[in-house]
Amino acid sequence: QVQLVESGGGMVQPGGSLRLSCTASGFTTFSNPIMSWFRQAPGKERELFAVISTAGSETHLVDSVKGRFTISRDNAKNTVFLQMNDLKPEDTGVYYCKAVEGRVYWGQGTQVTVSS
User: Fold this and answer.
1) Using alpha carbons only, what angle is made at residue 43 by residues 39 and 44, rounded to the nearest 5 degrees?
2) So what's the pLDDT on residue 31?
């Protein structure tokens, strides 16, 4: 049974940083699934903003987070990371990781609040 567990969320002031982790279990080989991060702001739909290839050699981020966020993965630790710098109030929301390997798997989400 595949499980994804996000951690690292919290409250931070504008301009601050957080590092989210998503640790997977249950995959035969963690290097197989494509991993991505989504976020859902209050009252809005869940949106994709970062994707990383199976080996971690390719990443894609939406323009609103480019230069501030970095997605990476450590397949030996079954973990994908999201380093978030220069956080803004509009980054507030619940952050979810997603894995795709034939089927789609979601974590339970972790709350990020950016407020002064």
Assistant:
1) 45
2) 75
